[in-house]
Design a protein that fits this description.
By secondary structure, the chain is α+β, with helices and mostly antiparallel strands. It contains 14 helices and 11 strands. Among the domains are: about 50 residues, no CATH class; about 55 residues.
Amino acid sequence: MTDEDTLTALLSIVEPSLVPAEIEVTASIDDVLGLAAPNGLEYAVVRDYEPNESRLSELNARRERLSETISTIDRIAERAEIEYALIKDCNTVRHLPRDIDLLVRESEKEQLITALTDTGYELDQEGEIETAVISEDDIPVDIYTRIQYFGVEFIDVEFLLDNTRRRTVYDTEYFGLANEGEHLLHLVHSFFGHRRITLLDFIHLLRIERDGVNDTDCLKHAAKMGWESTYLYFRSELSALERRIKDEQSVTFPYLFDLSTMIGSVNRLDADVSGYELPVLFSLWLDGIKLQIEDTPVEDAIKRIDPLRKVLLQIAYISRRMRGDRYS
């Protein structure tokens, strides 16, 4: 069984528009689930295609925790009169995130943390790169106040929070981003946040574009923030990726953007990022190693050796800080 067969089978379940109607699906369900899990799509397969009662029960319990967490956030924010948006929620595709990403104004961050800790959350981490709160019963929450990579502010927080929409996921309402903000943020985060794009994120980007994205507004905001050329480059790269899938060429997901693509993206920025060149190259090198060992026995061994795991996490944290990444 080839990787192309497995990808085709998974796409036929979650996004048939990318698969020719006449194609024969031959991959086994185990292969499909093996590809779905690292791409955030396990729930879509287990729930809608190949129910496994034991696993489905576990996933449904996670779904309930997700709904409860979102309801709690929405209720707390309304009571505290804090404007917020759930970001990177991929609500167009059935899935279950490992955590919730929450965007608020920097001036309201501490107020939100206090409101959350007053209701049972604990502050797990707080710094200029990231802030996270956890609860025994709810999904972990990461709090964002900015979208910054390489010392460059890519999206104005006011642009995002002034254009929120009431969204629904699993019958639970919350404030999410308008399609334009969602589109911009997903592009930036896929390239510069992770250096890769999962099939979940890729399909979500396709679906919000179909739903309607004002390209002119996106281009204007990217130009205002100094990354118009990079924005157009991102768009061309994803269009090329879509063509490769439709032409049944070999594509592996999560899709790793190669080093030349990443350097090309950085070099197209209007801002002078020369001071971040070495940290950027170092962090990209680290990302490549991390992705190579992901879901392998090497990663499992690292997770079992707590001191080693903490050292590697600290190295990754320092590299992100050196290259100018800031989220909170």
